[in-house]
Amino acid sequence: MTLSALHHMYSNQRSVNGHQKASVANKPPQTPKPEEKEKFHVPEGRKIERNEDRMVRSPTIQKKRRKRRHMITANLAGTRYEVVRQVIEDLGFSIAKDDDPS
């Protein structure tokens, strides 16, 4: 039984002011109808096709292609500190020439 159904039953009992109705007290808990059990939620992103045999087939999903990242170049023409040069070499950056505009 869902929370909203319990809340509805509780509010109906309180509105009677202590006097229970026979229909509310003797009512069995509501179970989902067989038609409701057969329904299923389909995510919006995927399309599902059904054939005559009622087999569910989903279309093939292509893998995402990763973009290649370009190598980072560093221009060390005006660098005074040797630490900067060592860190750039350790990180694998390419060192640009003085005449290279990029």
Q: If you had to describe this structure to a student in words, what would you say it looks like?
A:
The protein has helices at 3-15, 22-25, 34-38, 82-91, and strands at 49-50, 56-57, 73-75, 94-96. It has 102 residues and is of the alpha+beta class. A two-stranded antiparallel ribbon has the order 1-2. It has a two-stranded parallel ribbon with strand order 3-4. The model has no long low-confidence stretch (mean pLDDT 70). The chain has a domain at 3-56. It has 4 helices and 4 strands; from the N terminus they run αααβββαβ.
Number of strands: 4
- Count the DSSP helices: 4
Q: Note the overall shape.
A: elongated
Main sheet characteristics: 2 strands, antiparallel
Beta content comes to 5-15%
- H/E element order: HHHEEEHE
Compute the gyration radius: what is it?
34 Å
Q: Give the low-pLDDT segments.
A: none
